[in-house]
């Protein structure tokens, strides 16, 4: 099983909290697509991205397949042609529509996807009281799965709209952009020595977050806040994108071949947001940067990226429910840090690239069956990000959470926090 | 000027016929997209194809730019961001949205495109009575231009829907499929010697159809009807797709690299139509074949393709308004030839590949200005097709009409008629 | 049979002239590779080019296969692994080494290829007196085939050496570069009306040069000489490479994607020759230009390319043995026209792009068997060049000769002669 | 500085040992290319590989640039055009010939490269007694650098020859192939707890091997020997290449796109060796496998790859001069393990993929200047291999050595040793 839910959390499930969270999560997805037209929701702007409608349908497929089909006697699929269309990458679930062609699925329509959702939600509601613990754990997994897709839905739509010369806004609401004097970054010393990290069993976690194990940390410090747009502009002004010695070899090749000279979505002093083109806020965290850029910035700054262990050790004591995260369907864009003490913006705001390659923890075993494909098979070539972003649903974050992307990818709300050896 | 309209046809323009044809043509485009959702109309399934909405908008751009903007004092553009989005390939009209990314333009919406149409149609209606002959000639050109895009709209939607595993139907109406015994093909001797061909000034024609000039034809015969699906099946059964000696070198490379083993849209005894998957009708003309396939079939049959001159000489005496052409928004699919005398299905049904490379006639000069880019600049690498198809609007065809595509392209309703030397 | 040799030429064959020409041709190939190292002769600088050693071996394979193997009883292949390596594109001769990987064949060595040549030459010498007419015709074809490869060998080596920053010279001998005042181009009126063209049976010709047939020519004139480098410089200075309206659509796409701004091998006022980098001679014919460039230049000059028929009609009366052609192993580079009357440099100097797509003449039938793949299967997408170049072996040219390349290719000694309608 | 040479080793340098090792290393490179023709030594069979001549020249460039040019007053470059040609990837040394086009450098010839070597060797010999410690450290680095290229030279030539249908042998000497019953693999328990690893300063090491630092190891065991060809055949027979659940996601994509179904160089029960095609020895270590294959095999075997730390901890006590390594120019091919106790074949035979991504050790700093580009900039996307192979020069190995390649690469002598948790 890919998720870990202990006896204590089972109590919570039984008392209706799971049903409420399920309903909240399912409703948020619908709210997020509310501003979108059928065409908006069906287009795919690059192979890495998926149409919003596809996200709606795929998360529904997940519940229908792993909960209703597998655990509810007599359940019949809403449409037996849909699994082929909306399976993402589960080899154990059979062949599927090629990922780069998701944008060609103009049918079923957005409304039809909503009907499917309603059908599955109703079936889940009926089935929930009688589900086995194993099935309930899959419901829990499905909620977290859908929360991940909510964030992807937002970043995918942002990418699509940014390709459109009209620069459409998802929400017209202006984003407050207080151009504050950004506070000086401070160094906060981290813990050193042998410490225990990784998920240990209390509450939900993805399989890759465990097992809990001991790690040896060397003396180090973390920056009090993420790097800001103003600091990033200094990097640009200092020739950061033209100095090969700052870059990893693959990163330099990427800069050259893609003609990269700024974070994604920057153009002429503005950046593209889900509310359209806006002036760049120098005090806000820099975002939409690749691992390659984060690493080059750190080299330029005479620092380095934190390891995922350094990050987790520092975050363990902080409240994962705090910070700039996704609460409802409204514009998301990282804002400047408020306050001036301790580690700021560890949760929410921007995902933070770490220097750690995404590999299994000692003793890791992927779950058997299709859901075992959730995390383990992606453990090559990617880097770990920690923390969460302004587009991550609140409640989805925790100190042990391991997000991962390839080092050139930057359409997520990705940023960096500097670290250094002591 | 890209079109040729003589004094006699001007009389027709003045009496309102032009206004009626304009209205008919503009309305047909809207009828064609009526069954489409916003998403259907916005998706692009390959670089060669365009979204249906794009066709609606581009044809509107053509009238707004070349008639209203250039010839109507005081006309203001509906939206001055649209020309960048909906110029196709007119270099003289400035930079434009990259063709392969037309499917990312989910905005303006299909409804917004319809509003633009209504706005432009109203302005055209007001302006028409007072337009100069030069402007009227551009209206005439715009009608023919839009008719071309109506055919493309149908073939592009067909291509899109064929990629969808659900196999959506544009129109549910069943296509009559009378599996008749197909009649034996006969050879009809053609004219030989020096004859005059090409457009000579009477009525509308594209610039590339002229000037009228003399051509020397050698003794030859044309097949009485196009090659049928049943005959194509014999070619397949005889190993046609596995016999390199039948193929042009580039054609064989294409067969190998694309793993081609049948006309486009064939699968397991069925083909995809605008009404969904249907049983293949052995008596209907084979269609969705490339020039390479047409040439290989002719080699296999011990024959050859006609030249465009042989075709035109034979067609000159026939009625271009006859045959299976597009009259209104309804399923299109080539049907079996009816009757048994003379040359059948020369106009309509399927475009017929000729053996003639698309090159200028002696004395050809492209028109000055942007509309001069209409035809002349495409005169390399493509082959001429003659006749028209079931998806060509009736009234758009004539004996001198020169259609052209690359030899590997086959998403149009393309077929072939055999020829031989005598 | 791909070649056409009538009874009269058979007399010549019998008297030893064929043997002498065979020996001369075979020796010239060896002379051409004499300045090359084993590495020079084995490298392949692009998919279109072949290693010099491969040319030596392939021409030997041609004689061994089609003459010795097929017509000499008891002949045993020198090495039965070689046909797989050195068959070029004859599908009927079975599978073969992939063309883009010819440069990986460092074995057999250049010396081994020479040994194979010697072996085959000896066997041919012994067999020649007793060969049947059919076999003798294949020897004749083999000679012309090898002459073609001699020209390719030179242009392929030139391409290879041009990629080397050391700019190696094939021959150190300086090329005379008399910067003369280039003579004014004159227009020479051509024949009009119905005339007979194409090869008619007297002497050797490739199959695609016939059959002889009647063509209708419209009134026109040809330029007295090819376009010069000085004129080409004017085209560049006038923004020729930056003006899309001058270009065919495919040509403009090619200019953009390849960043073309001058003929191949031009750099900083010099061009690369088989004697290394040299100052550009403004009076010499412009060469290493694509069809796209030739066509754009003609548009810029208010003229057009000649048709292949106009060219042939004009050339029929001229001596194909005259002009700047390849006599022995020495530097080749087109020189300025000498003299001032009539049509100059029709044969030799540079191949002249015509406006004619390479398609079959009326009544053309490719020969049966493998040698039938020589020409006919290439009749799509390519354009005809006429005349011959400074790298064409003298004796290989004739008025009916049809060379052909794709419109973007320019590593041959290609140029253009303007034409216009009268 | 990229290398680390302490005071103790400096004593060795001063007494002539360095000069002797330099001479030995330089001579071995020449011996390795002795069987190669000029063409063999100049060809490049893929972007990842380089011509043998290029290796000869590049290693010479390294000494000429970093020792002679930078540390020997008055030294003049042998040919000032060569640095552009033979710089590999040192951005600080300026622009350079594009890597994929190394095979086009047929000049300078193999003999000219040898002359350059002789010139540089003589200059090094004269300069050596008077070199500064910094310069001597660069000589030391140059020796290790050249040893790396000796291994690459062998694997690159092997790749080239394997593309040739003639299957040329570098050395004809037969490889002994005793098809022994392969011994049962045993599990050897490794150390657990906090241990010190990484290079600590005694003797030469590359910068990436340090600094020495503490690592926490969990209880585990290593296999007594690498996986054999016989075991690999079982993996194949059991459908290993057809079972997606065994593979990392990127690995499965690679298997599909490259149609991988066996280690590189396997065909019909044989594999290609530097002595040509040979029967596969089931008892010899499996080699020419990618990380993806190694990982999938481990999954299939119910085990995992060792971390680089587990490997190093186990290797620390073993003799790095033992085992199957490169001593002189002769056939190299991994042989079956001899003996039956302890950890076998840890050094030599095959490089062993570890599960560790190639990332910096805590406190790592790349050296300033061009030689700082040696290792640090490659720390993304690659995996660490440990141990050395039959093609690694003896003396080049040590327990701390970190080799690294991308997970799909397999033209090196790469294999795997299983590990498991205890």
TrEMBL record, chains A, B, C, D:
The cross-references to Gene3D superfamilies, in alphabetical order and at most eight, read: paralog of FGE (formylglycine-generating enzyme)
Residue stretches making up the Sulfatase-modifying factor enzyme-like domain:
187-420
Task: Say yes or no: keyword Oxidoreductase present.
Answer: yes
Per the UniProt record, one Pfam family is DinB_2
Please provide the record's keywords in A-Z order: Iron, Oxidoreductase
Keyword set includes Transport: no
Q: Where is the signal peptide?
A: none
Write down what this protein is called.
Answer: Ergothioneine biosynthesis protein EgtB
Organism the protein comes from: Sphingopyxis jiangsuensis
Q: What is the lineage of its organism?
A: Bacteria, Pseudomonadati, Pseudomonadota, Alphaproteobacteria, Sphingomonadales
């Amino acid at each position: 099983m890919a998720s870990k839910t202990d006896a204590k959390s089972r109590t919570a499930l039984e008392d209706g909290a799971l049903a409420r969270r399920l309903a909240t999560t399912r409703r948020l997805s619908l709210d997020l697509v509310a501003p979108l037209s059928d065409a908006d929701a069906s287009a795919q702007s690059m192979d890495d991205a998926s149409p919003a409608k596809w996200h709606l349908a795929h998360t529904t497929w997940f519940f229908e397949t792993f909960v209703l089909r597998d655990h509810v006697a007599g359940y019949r699929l809403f449409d037996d042609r849909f699994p082929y269309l909306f399976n993402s990458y589960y080899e154990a679930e059979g062949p599927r529509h090629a990922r780069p062609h998701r944008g060609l699925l103009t049918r079923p329509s957005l409304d039809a996807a909503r009907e499917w959702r309603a059908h599955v939600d109703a079936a889940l509601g009926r089935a929930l009281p009688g589900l086995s613990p194993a099935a309930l754990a899959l419901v829990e997994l499905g909620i977290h799965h859908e929360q991940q897709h909510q964030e992807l839905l937002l970043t995918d739509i942002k990418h699509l709209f940014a390709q459109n010369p009209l620069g459409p806004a998802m929400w017209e609401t202006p984003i407050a952009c207080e151009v504050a004097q950004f506070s000086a970054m401070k160094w906060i010393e981290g813990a050193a020595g042998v410490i225990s990290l990784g998920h240990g069993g209390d509450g939900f976690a993805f399989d890759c977050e465990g097992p809990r194990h001991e790690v040896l940390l060397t003396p180090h410090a973390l920056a009090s806040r993420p790097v800001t747009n103003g600091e990033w502009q200094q990097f640009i002004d200092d020739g950061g994108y033209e100095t090969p010695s700052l870059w990893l070899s693959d990163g330099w090749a990427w800069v050259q071949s893609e003609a990269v000279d700024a974070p994604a979505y920057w153009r002429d002093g503005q950046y593209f947001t889900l509310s359209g083109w806006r002036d760049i806020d120098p005090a806000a965290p820099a975002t939409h940067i690749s691992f390659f850029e984060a690493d080059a910035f750190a080299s330029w700054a005479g620092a380095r990226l934190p390891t995922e262990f350094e990050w987790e050790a520092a975050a363990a004591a902080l409240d994962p429910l705090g910070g700039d995260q996704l609460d409802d369907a409204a514009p998301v864009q990282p804002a400047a840090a408020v306050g001036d003490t301790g580690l700021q913006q560890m949760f929410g705001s921007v995902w933070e690239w770490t220097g750690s390659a995404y590999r299994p923890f000692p003793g890791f075993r992927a779950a058997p069956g299709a859901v075992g494909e959730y995390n383990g098979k992606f453990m090559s070539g990617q880097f770990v990000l920690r923390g969460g972003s302004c587009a991550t649903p609140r409640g989805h974050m925790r100190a042990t959470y391991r997000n991962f992307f390839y080092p050139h990818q930057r359409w997520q709300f990705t940023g960096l926090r500097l670290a250094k050896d002591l």
